[in-house]
Design a protein that fits this description.
The protein is mostly beta strands. The protein is built from no helices and eight strands.
């Protein structure tokens, strides 16, 4: 049987936020600092036994594990809130 394999896509993206839209400090009057995260992902497609199409996908969110503040403790909040840490996400898809 003929096995076809190909990389469907590779992507690189970043999320640059000049500010989170939230404010901190006394009376929530100071804008929070900007932050930038980098995300990468790839998908790979192949066929099993020449009939079953399989696609595998892997994504990494916040590749460099950048720590960033979403909201600081201030009026109405008792603790600092940070953005998500580095995450690895994968998936598989089969078409019969």
């Amino acid at each position: 049987p003929i096995h076809r394999r190909k990389i469907l896509c590779c992507h690189l993206s970043n999320n640059h936020h000049p500010g989170s839209g939230f404010y901190g400090g006394f009376a929530n009057s100071a804008p929070l600092p900007a932050h930038c995260t980098v995300n990468v992902g790839a998908a790979y497609a192949t066929a099993l036994a020449g009939r079953i199409s399989v696609t595998l996908r892997l994504d990494v969110v916040n590749l460099f594990d950048q720590s960033y503040l979403l909201h600081d403790a201030g009026v109405g909040a008792t603790v600092n809130q940070y953005g998500e840490r580095r995450g690895f996400f994968g998936g598989a898809r089969c078409d019969f």
